[in-house]
Amino acid sequence: MDITAELRKIVGVRLSVSPSELYCYSSDASQVKGTPDYVVRPKSTDEVSRIVKLAYENEIPVTARGAGTGLAGGAVPVRGGIVLDMSGMNRILEIDIDNIQVVVEPGIIQDALNDALIPYGFFFPPNPGSSAMCTIGGMIAYNASGMRCVKYGTTRNYVRDLEVVLADGTVIHTGSKMLKSAAGYDLTQLIIGSEGTLGIVTKAGLKIAPLPKTRKLVIASFENAEIAGQAVVKTFSNGVIPSACEILDRVSLQVLKRYDPKLVLPSEGDVLLFEVDGTENSAREAAEQIIEVCSPLALSIKLAESENEMADIWAARKFVGAAVSRLDPTKTRIYVGEDVGVPIKKIPELLKRAQEISEKFNLPAMKYGHIGDGNLHLALFIDVLNKDEWDRLNQVADLIHRTAIELGGTVSSEHGIGAARAEYMKAQWGPAFEVMRAIKKALDPKGILNPGKLGL
Amino acid sequence: MKTVKNKEKREIKRAKELDKSEISEMKGKNQPFELDRRSVYKCVQCGTCRSVCPVFNVVGWESANTRGRMLIIKSLLEGRPPSEDVLPSLASCTTCGICAAKCPAGVNPPEVVEAARAQLVKCGITTEVQEKLRASVITSGNSFGEAKDRTHWLSETERSQLTEKSDYVYFVGCFDSYRYPEFAEKTFKVLQRFVVTLLPDEQCCASPLLRTGFREDAEKVMKRNLEQIRKVGAHTIITSCAGCYTTLKNNYPEELHVISLPEFLAEHLDELKLKKLDLTVTYHDPCHMGRHNKIYEAPRKVIQAICTLKEMKNIKENSRCCGGGGGVRIGYPDISLELARNRLEDVPEGVDYIITSCPLCVRNLRDAGGDIEVIDIVELVAMAME
Known about the structure:
heterodimer, A: seven-stranded antiparallel sheet, five-stranded antiparallel sheet, 16 helices, 18 strands, globular, B: alpha/beta, four-stranded parallel sheet, 22 helices, 7% strand, disordered N terminus
């Protein structure tokens, strides 16, 4: 069968087999590579269904892709086949304030959704660092979260219903606008985080939340990252739940200050950023409590003085991951071992061991991340023209992953497994991984949906 | 005061296109594709640029955004043989630079794209439109292939008063010379009181050649301008075109002191004695004057000295491209106009004019339609001087 001709019948000019185009779809922000044979940009559920049905009948791999901002190769077609570029399906179909929900297509950009919700006084809380470019579909597929999930939870907590195209092209709905349901398996939750291996999301009903009246930011610095970790544990055990709790180690601080010299950040130590939100009174009380609890451990601690100061710090924080090249143009951030997580109590130990591993392999690393939920973004940067540095980089990443598992944590807290972390799934899950295999087999017997991912 | 003889200029031959054998002689399919690797490898493929690239916003394919272009360039550096297949991606960048402004890793994609285009030219991979543009510039000295005298808009008296030596040269540019001579006239009138002269045989500044990869040809054209500038003995070059400005400032030798018309006007506001006008206008930052050279305040100062300025939705560093630059207007007119239409969406309600300081922006924004007249800043100044 002439697949090109068949695909053209479905999407017309929104099909490409140009080598340059295919090359542009052969990677995301990870180191995983795989070139597709076809790229299509569907515009409707019907088109997706027909494409997937065609792929099913001809046993062609199908990999869904949003903005390609993933850090684990989830959207990379490692076995070739068809890439479904979902970013053109980007409409907001319904803003239903009475039910505190929205219905969107998967290609909508996270910030665009929130821009549309601001006039209503609502927001979609999960906010990855890539919110300016990542799609909601990608966030659902990888259960993305971000800085505020310490209080607001992850994408998983906000999805009410999904329209999903199954491996044979069948279209199902996994939920409804109901806030709760006790009718059978929760297929919505099954699809979230399944990385396009069980079905293709074509619509999503999402819960939204009212925007808080105010936000405040406490900036504290500590002698070392380990003590900062202890301060986080102490804050939580004192009953304060910040809306964000981030760590920036001293290397990250240097990079940020180079990025924006005007940033008001401490000049020494490792820094914690605690954001609290709510009413003016509740936010102030929470901020005061954090200052009281952390002061005995901190080198310095203060409340951000203005909205602008806060906004600048958060904007810079979003960019810290890739900004290392500004400090040293011969270094490039490589996203490996960048998303481990451990139970909060184990954070000081993770930080200590990460530092030891980085020193052992003589590979400097920035340590930053959502320390409030145990998620550490270890940022490794190397000279990409130096093979030895690549070797050491991969060894460090491997050890970091194994350390996280050993501490009872996860190799990925919010970026996903994709192909980059597939080899750790068995070690992390043990016999539970076989259950995942069984589910995959039941829903995708021919293995056409995003093959080569999740270690399945 | 000695007058310049313009006889030679009037005898410029009619533009002709290079014949095919001439073009193919310069091409070399087996030439290696070389580029500063670090400028490319700094890219971490995060996709920040994808969210702001105006061409991608219209086209929708990954190859039409900056990250896609960087990936394609990377593939060429890593040995993929260059072919015509890369042109729709690499030739469709307007070099607006919003990606560079947003890139967390500090990559400068317009520079990388221009360098890649130069390599493609070296490898003999160009579009027909590119070749036509090149032929126009090198055979007629302007990007339109016009045979007409470049200073046709000058009156005989003005022509006779041009000095051979001067501290200031007004570099007119192809657009104002041939498409908007009324801008050239007005600019010259404003500048006359500061005793400016014109180059006796001004050539295209070479921007179209540099932006589309013809670096060797550009060198020749630039040399001709430079020799004349030195001969005139000017310490300052004033230009009202954003494309000419960035080229003269950043591609010509550093010895040149180049100043844009808005900067010059802002510096001499007191002497200009402008009257207030009962107008409300908005200002479009041309990419090559704004983001590339950070000239944001001078045009605003001039405008506010005359009338009320109401800003567009996206301004200064975040200003959206009009779609005219980087060879896209001529190479991909549909995409270019779509960008201009998108830019017009940023225009606020209740303004009398859209002001800008680049004739290419004027043209593209005018061609995009819309109800509000687009004018060059010099026209506003001229109104305030009447």
